[in-house]
């Protein structure tokens, strides 16, 4: 289990470095080392895709990264909000690095892409209620 957690931490660091490199001119991080991207797609590319893959199909190897594509567990909007904020199993929580609007943006992006078509959206207030 420690190996999977180490992989998750490495993936987080890789994602953070990718965001920093891709947005260096735009100021990827603020003074509090929080992600600066506001768009759900940009947040997904910078944080999530290193484990869940660019197409959202997940991966298996040293660890198992569940698919987000066509994932019925995303139907209940509170589920992905809780997971993004707090983490679960090998996935670290991102609540310390993302504000409520950013969590809402990335959750809404995942719930409306990769073959997912959940029409109800998550608001920053919904995220605040989970924290």
Salient structural properties:
mainly alpha, globular, two-stranded antiparallel sheet, Cytochrome Bc1 Complex, Chain D, domain 2, 4 strands, two-stranded antiparallel ribbon, 131 residues
Q: How would you characterize this protein structure?
A:
The protein has helices at about 1-20, 40-50, 80-85, 100-110, 125-130; strands spanning about 60, 65, 85-90, 90. It has about 130 residues and is mostly helical. The chain has a single domain (about 1-130), classed as Orthogonal Bundle (Cytochrome Bc1 Complex, Chain D, domain 2), CATH 1.10.760.10. Strands 1-2 form a two-stranded antiparallel sheet. A two-stranded antiparallel sheet has the order 3-4. Helix 1 (about 1-20) runs antiparallel to helix 2 (about 40-50). It is globular and about 35 Å long. The model is unreliable at about 20-30 (pLDDT under 50).
In the predicted model, the low-confidence regions spanning at least 5 consecutive residues are 19-31
* Helix coverage percent: 40-55%
Molecular shape: globular
Secondary-structure-based class equals: mainly alpha
CATH topology: Cytochrome Bc1 Complex, Chain D, domain 2
Reading side by side through the largest sheet, how are the strands ordered?
1-2
Order of helices and strands: HHEEHEEHH
Number of domains: 1
Specify the CATH architecture: Orthogonal Bundle
Proportion of strand residues? 5-15%
How many DSSP E strands?
Answer: 4
**Count of DSSP H/I helices:** 5
| CATH homolog superfamily | Cytochrome c-like domain
CATH class: Mainly Alpha
Q: End-to-end span in angstroms?
A: 26 Å
Q: Main beta sheet, described?
A: 2 strands, antiparallel
**Rg measurement, Å:** 14 Å
Average pLDDT over all residues: 82
